[in-house]
Specification:
The chain is an alpha+beta fold. The strands form 2 sheets. Strands 11, 12, 13, 14, 15, 16, 17, 18, 19 and 20 form a 10-stranded mixed beta sheet that branches. Strands 2-3-8-5-7-6 form a 6-stranded mixed beta barrel.
């Protein structure tokens, strides 16, 4: 056989095939555009979400560096600064805390920092410069506003600050200022290096061990890459032993894209697979039908010497040429769709507040989406290309692929439209299977979307995150900026006397360090061992925990609770009565949030001491819902527990008279009115109070679930369009390929009505098969995908439903009837004689 190896000829032949198959080209381009749109919108929305969330978390952390080391002596700072993997670094020196009366509700630190240190914590002056002279200072606009000073360089600034246990005053000159961020938990005041070194001595190990921060150094590190930061942290800990000298090293969580709650990897993989499957099905079917229609031509080409490899190249070249048209259009459309989706996908993050959308124009969006789309097209045309390459020239000239190996069967009995419809589908069963799968995919997603919507248990979410209609406290997103004793007796009295108030749950808090007895020490050692075994803690954090264990001290929160708060408590085992708890002889201990147990068991004795001390018997192990609990860990350790006492006992020990939290229930139907009153009441409250309402939390919870509805609805719509396109293309090509056969039926007496009925039955069989596939195999496959993505939410309880597929049936039936009828009527414009003469 003569080998034809002319690229020019191959291009010319492929071009002629495309000119002949204009209808096929249009459908293929639409399919490629839709597939690319789905890939691009997915990646653009994902990267925009990641960028927006990262920048918001950078703001919350008030830190742009990759790794931070706090609480160092100068010697340790100088040593760590020489680490080989540091690309850039900055540092700061702690002087003290600013104590002006204006800052009672705003934690403000006075420090010296270099330019990179200021850049790290987002506090670089935008007007003026960093302080260089002894009496110069740089402040944020928030600090200037609290002081009531104008935003002008050269303004006199009087500050009071605490250092080494003494209060000092100093008048400064404003050298520069920056726009303060309300998300930041601490405001910074920059002073010159000369002033800092004059006012504070360098910290040593003894002062740091006692908890003093004056004169400590912080180092801000940028690495070559944001990946493997945790490995670098552990490497630095092994080399410099920060935990041994009470220093703290940690990576910036804003760069941890693959944390459990940061990057929905399973969801993204599932969506990529769905998009790939839908794109593959239609592209494969389009080229499979096209190859079948042109099989005689391919056979003739092979007969004159074209090799199988060259025939493959002709098919692939057509696919790739169509991709050159479809993929760029899909990338453009998909990018803007993704940007439009991003605000909705970010809208539920109540912890971070309203996240400004940061559109990502990363070229990776277009590169990755384009590659995925091109790969889908390439794989989709592979099988048709192989069919062309393997076909025998003689067989190709004699028959269509659908006729290959067809054996004549003796037909007996009455021939009905239903029988004929089944026979036709059996004859082209491969195309039928692809169409059925294409239609089943969007129906499966519809069923999954509806099932998800019925599976969110909002009451379970609310019972944990907002146990009462309103929670009032001084708690913010950070322990450093939270006031744990903000709810005053006057506020409590005012709320309690409101006509709409039904219940007021009060929770008080004092943090303590207490000596462990033998049992407490033994239990804490077991807890740390278990945490190490399960790899919950490692590296420097593990060393730190063992060091605190060796000190024989433990950290805890002594919580005072009233009867209304006690009603919300949950217990391990039977719940004791409040009357028994209120006798004053008992205390309730919490289980550790990490799930490794507790320090003590019911019946043990423990001595608690605030201003006064008393021994109590442990009554039970219990805990409060999240919103009524102490929401932050201890600064010293992650293994801190809580002891719950009746309010009377808490007060007798000398606990703070201000409560940490007030949970308020109001009369049914009066929530909005009370919300208006409460919002006005806390607006100018001193200390500052914050309100979390059940209604607002419910909206945030619904926002979390609705973003999944949005994704699935858009995906279902596009997949439905692809399935419809596939069905239309298959029906059109099949009817046109059978036009001679259908003309013969009309010639021997079958009416057009009977033929239409047969074609409609074919369409309905497609539909019925798709519904059965979606409601059985589809839902079985969807179940583990749901559980591995959205199903991880603690308030999700899976309730599968097939209602969506049945509701969509009328529309699907209409399509199943309309498409074949339309294609038949279009073909019927030719006369019977013209159709009989067609090849």
């Amino acid at each position: 056989m003569i080998k034809v190896d002319s690229k020019k000829t191959i291009r010319s032949v492929a071009k002629r095939f495309m000119q002949v198959n204009r209808g096929r080209n249009i459908i293929a381009i639409i399919a490629i555009i839709m597939t690319t749109v789905m890939f691009t919108s997915l990646f653009s929305a994902l990267l925009s979400m990641m960028k927006s969330t990262q920048q918001q978390e950078v703001r919350m952390n008030a830190n742009t560096s990759h790794i931070t080391i706090d609480n160092m002596t100068y010697e340790k700072f100088a040593e760590a600064s020489k680490f080989g993997k540091i690309k850039e670094s900055g540092y700061s020196i702690m002087l003290g805390t600013v104590t002006n009366q204006e800052f009672v509700n705003s934690a403000t630190d006075m420090k010296y920092t270099d330019e990179k240190g200021a850049e790290a914590v987002l506090c670089s002056p935008v007007q003026g410069k960093m302080p260089t002279k002894y009496n110069e200072v740089a402040l944020s606009t928030i600090t200037l506003d609290l002081l009531g000073l104008p935003r002008e360089v050269g303004t006199k600034v009087k500050l009071q600050y605490g250092v080494d246990g003494k209060q000092e005053r100093q008048e400064f000159v404003l050298s520069g200022y920056w726009r303060g961020d309300p998300l930041s938990s601490v405001q910074n005041v920059w002073v010159s290096k000369a002033f800092c070194e004059d006012k504070v001595t360098k910290a040593d190990l003894t002062s740091i061990e006692k908890g003093k921060t004056e004169g400590t150094y912080s180092l801000y590190i940028w690495c070559e890459s944001i990946f493997h930061l945790e490995d670098i942290v552990n490497e630095m800990e092994r080399q410099y032993h920060f935990s041994d000298v009470y220093s703290r090293i940690y990576s910036n969580s804003a760069y941890d894209f693959f944390a459990d709650d940061a990057f929905p990897l399973d969801t993204v993989i599932a969506m990529i697979l769905i998009i790939f499957a839908s794109g593959y099905l239609i592209i494969y079917n389009v080229f499979r039908i096209s190859v079948n229609s042109d099989i005689r031509t391919y056979g003739l080409l092979k007969n004159i010497g074209t090799t199988g490899r060259q025939l493959k190249s002709i098919v692939r070249r057509q696919a790739m040429t169509l991709s050159v048209i479809g993929i760029p259009l899909g990338l453009l459309i998909g990018y803007f769709i993704g940007l439009g989706m991003t605000p909705y996908l970010l809208s539920d993050n109540s912890v971070m507040g309203v996240i400004p959308v940061q559109p990502s124009v990363n070229p990776l969006i277009f590169i990755i989406a384009g590659l995925f789309a091109a790969l889908t097209v390439y794989i989709g045309c592979q099988m048709p290309a192989r069919i062309v390459a393997k076909i025998s020239p003689v067989d190709a000239v004699r028959m269509n692929l659908e006729e290959e190996n067809r054996k004549s069967r003796k037909k007996t009995g009455k021939t009905t439209p239903l029988f004929m419809a089944f026979s036709n589908m059996r004859r082209s069963w491969k195309k039928a299977v692809l169409v059925v799968i294409s239609l089943a995919l969007p129906m499966t997603l519809l069923n999954a979307s509806y099932s998800i919507s019925k599976s969110f248990d909002y009451d379970q979410f609310l019972n944990i995150y907002c146990s009462y209609d309103f929670d009032v406290s001084g708690i913010t997103h950070s322990a450093y900026s939270s006031n744990m004793n903000a709810v005053t007796p006057e506020f409590i009295e005012e709320v309690s006397t409101q006509e709409d108030t039904e219940k007021v749950a009060l929770i008080y808090n004092e943090d303590i360090s207490y000596p462990l007895d033998d049992k407490g020490y033994e239990n804490l050692a077991k807890i740390i061992d278990q945490a190490e075994k399960e790899k919950y803690i490692k590296g420097y954090q593990l060393k730190k925990e063992r060091k605190y264990l060796a000190s024989g001290e433990a950290f805890a929160h002594v919580m005072g609770i009233n009867r209304d708060a006690y009603e919300k408590m949950m217990f391990t085992g039977e719940k004791p009565s409040y009357d028994e708890f209120a006798t004053g002889d008992y205390v309730i201990v919490s289980d550790l949030v990490q799930g490794f147990g507790t320090f003590y068991d019911p019946g043990d004795k423990v001595t608690l001491e605030l201003k006064n001390g008393k021994e109590y018997t442990l009554l039970a192990i219990g805990w409060m819902p999240y919103d009524l609990s102490y929401r932050f860990g201890a600064k010293e350790t992650i293994f801190d527990g809580s002891f719950y006492l009746p309010v009377s006992e808490y007060s007798a020990l000398g606990g703070n008279e201000n409560a940490m939290m007030a949970g308020i229930d109001v009369k049914e139907g009066r929530e909005e009115a009370f919300d208006q009153w409460l919002s006005g009441r806390v607006e100018d409250a001193k200390p500052t109070l914050y309100v979390e309402s059940r209604l607002a939390v419910l909206e945030q919870c619904k926002g979390f679930s609705e973003k999944y509805y949005l994704i699935l609805a858009l995906l279902s719509a596009v997949l439905f369009a692809i399935g419809l396109l596939n069905f239309f293309n298959t029906s059109s090509v099949t009817i046109m390929a059978r036009r001679r056969e259908l003309a013969l039926l009309e010639a021997v007496g079958q009416t057009q009505r009977q033929i239409r009925k047969m074609l409609i039955i074919e369409g309905l069989i497609y539909l019925l098969a798709a519904v059965l596939l979606a409601d059985t195999v589809g839902m079985a496959i969807a179940r583990p995908m749901i559980f591995n993505t959205i199903g991880r939410a603690f308030f999700f309880s899976y309730h599968p439903s097939l209602l969506a597929s049945f509701v969509s049936l009328p529309l699907m039936v209409l399509i199943a009837i309309a498409v074949p009828v339309y294609n038949y009527l279009r073909m019927s414009k030719e006369t019977i004689v013209e159709r009989l003469r067609s090849d």
